[in-house]
Amino acid sequence: MPVGSKQTNRQSAPHNTNWVHLKKQAQDGAPIAFDPDVEPYDPNDEAAVVAYWANATITRGRGRPPLAVKRPTLNMRVDAEVLEAFKATGPGWQTRINALLRDAVKGGMLRP
Of 46, 69, 99, 110, which residue is least crowded by CB atoms under 10 Å? Predict the structure, then answer.
């Protein structure tokens, strides 16, 4: 794998939205389908839209959720061949290094 490239396991979601059709409906003034049992407000009623969004609060987190115990960042120098050997094992190589070090500490090879 080239340096700087990142491989992920995520699959792109299929895009089933017909945007051309939706834009044409919007230009024609066609009403938006509304199911009162599922949706919080009628999107065709301007007052309902304004009232809903005036009281709405949007919260979103950035990145991963916080961990109970934050792991410190480490800058460490290792031999080039050691680093290449771990990187050659693919994504997750830093996690594997951490697991090996943790096992060494737990096994008594190193004192905490």
Answer: 69
